[in-house]
Amino acid sequence: MRRPRLPPTLRGRMLGLLLLAALPVLALAALGIAASWQAEREEVEHRLARDRDHVIALNRAAVEAAAAVLATVTAAASTGGARCDALLAPARSLGLAPVVVDAEGAVVCGTAVPPPGLARLRGAARPVVAPGQGAAVLVAQPLAGNGGFVATEVPLRTSAPELRLWLLDATGGARAVRAGTSAPPAPEGSGAERLTAEDGTTWLAAAGTIAPGIKVLVARPDAPLRRAARLMALRRMSELAALLALGGLAVFLGLGHSVTRPLARLRAAVAGWMDGQPLDAEATARLPEELRDLAQAFSEGAAVLAERDAALSAAVSRAELLAEEVHHRVKNNLQIVSSLLALQAGRVADAAARAEFEATRDRVAALATLHRHMYLHHDPDAIDPRAFLQELGEQLFAAVGERPGRRIAFQVDASPLRIASDQAVPLALLITEAVSVALRHGFPGARRGRIAIRLVSTEARAELTIEDDGAWPRADDRLRTSLMRGFARQLGSELRMEEGRLSLDLPLRPPLPRQVPRLRAGSAT
After folding, report:
1. Torsion of CA 155, 159, 161, 162, to 10 degrees
2. Which residues contact 84 (CB under 8 A, 6 or more apart)?
3. How far, in Å, CA of 225 to CA of 322, rounded?
4. Contact between 118 and 161 (Cβ < 8 Å)
5. What is the band of 45 on the pLDDT scale with cuts at 50, 70, 90?
6. What is the C-alpha to C-alpha distance for residues 406 and 190, in angstroms, rounded to an integer?
7. Residue 86 — very low, low, confident or very high, per pLDDT cuts 50/70/90?
8. Alpha helix locations (H) across 375-499?
């Protein structure tokens, strides 16, 4: 598994830790919001149950009051002497519309439009409370002696305008108190339930009994209740998000003032020290205690490093001076050897032996020239091949008594080159052999011509081409060719030879790393 990638800055990491620490709080807050949601739903259900009980009590009291008034009316009617309209006055004072009906069902007095269903009360010997027309309760009291009765309808009422009320019949059907509302099905239990009507409206409903055989359904629309619960949950989540945002801002600003700024001052002090300035004691004195300790430890370590830096600088200077002296002496010794070989060649009478002495002298002189050019700029791996080859050609021309451009033209085309010393030596010797052969055997007598050397290099490879328009074949091609092929193998390549042209493509081995100590500005040298 891949490890999580940490933020690159200290502020980012601290904010990440804050969010990580806030995860349990967020989880608990989510559980609290869910619990609050559930508690709110339960509270709404309990509130509806209380509203149902209140509505039932209100309408039950109205039915009982109507029954009591009708009982008073029937008692007065049995004594006789009072007119019918006068008997119904107490019921009318309650907002009722009573009616007196005889044994045949004919209206004796009362409302002109009697409530339907009076026929089923004919012959009733006791008070009756039954569902009336629409959402109303029919209350009737029998009249003693004549088989008639006094009846009225008590309309059902709600205790709040947002409540809906339905009267349930024996089949479970419902009749609304207000028109235009589709009734939900009757609930199965006595508690509050969420029910869906035929028109898709969701209600929170509860049923109750007003009188024996008379049930009502009290309901509230569920959508506003859900909306209120969602708003409550969103409000609490917004409060929690605002709290976390304020906490994150406080951490961000606190880190900037207490940690990031002191670290920036310490970094500036260290940067100044790297530029040769002493550590600012006044700036570090304002840092927190931990950073002051760190600055003090850094200052002490910096003093030790400065001493070692000075010692290393002096050692490097001495080493460079010694290396230059060694290189100078090696070059001088090689030149002395070359001069001795030239003197010895002048004293040898045999032409073949003298030629070998001269060839050895040329090789030693080439090595001396290469050595001087490799250490000319204090970097043994970087040489200027154009200057080196130009000087080497002048030496080889002088060895045969010639001068470049007088009878034989000498052309050099070379790019800057970085090459390891163990490759530079065989490359220089190969070029020496090729040019020496061309000068000594390619242009006999007064023959004129040219010799061209082309050395092109990239980071990983170099290509060498030597061309001349001298005479072919040459007397000692076999010996020289053997030497040149050996040098090519040392270079990790293979020599390609054609008439008038020699070429090879060699891989450049990277020079050994030579690290130069990085000295701090202002240190002793």
Report:
1. -110
2. 77, 100, 108, 109, 110
3. 95
4. no
5. confident
6. 127
7. confident
8. 385-399, 421-441, 477-490
Q: What are phi and psi of 465, to 5 degrees?
A: -135, 130
Please, what is the Cα angle at 144 between 138 and 149, to 5 degrees? Answer: 25
pLDDT at position 3 is: 66
**Residue 152 pLDDT > 60, yes or no?**
yes
Summarize the confidence of residues 413-430 as an average pLDDT.
84
- Burial class, 283, CB count within 10 angstroms (exposed 0-12 / middle 13-18 / buried 19+): middle
Q: Which helix (H) or strand (E) holds 302?
A: helix 289-347
Cα-based angle 71, 75, 77 (whole degrees, multiple of 5):
115
Token pair of 405 as six digits: 């451009």
Query: What is the reported pLDDT for 409?
Result: 92
pLDDT, tens digit, for every residue of 346-355? 777 777 777 7
Give the tokens for residue 475: 């007397």
Average pLDDT along the chain: 77
Token pair of 329 as six digits: 């002496």
Say how far apart CA 285 and CA 279 lie, in whole Å. 11
Per-residue pLDDT averaged across 26-44, rounded? 77
Strand partners, 217: 166, 207
What's the average model confidence in pLDDT over 38-42?
76
What residue type is assigned to position 439 of the chain? L
What distances in angstroms separate CA 177 from CA 64, 94, 133, 412, one per listed residue?
A: 20, 20, 11, 115
Q: What is the pTM of this model?
A: 0.43
CA distance 445 to 435: 17
What pLDDT, on a 0 to 100 scale, did the predictor assign at position 520? 45
Q: How many Å apart are CA 515 and CA 327, to the nearest integer?
A: 19
92 touches 189 (CB < 8 A): no
Q: Give kind and range of the element (H or E) at residue 291.
A: helix 289-347
Residues in the chain, overall count:
525
Contact between residue 178 and residue 163 where contact means Cβ atoms under 8 Å apart = no
Query: Cα 445 to the chain's mean position, in Å?
Result: 81
As a whole number of angstroms, the distance between CA 115 and CA 129 comes to 13
Phi, psi of 72 (to 5 degrees): -65, -40
CA pair distance 209, 211, nearest whole angstrom = 6
Angle at 438 between CA 435 and CA 442, to 5 degrees: 170
- The stretch 432-448 carries a mean pLDDT of 86
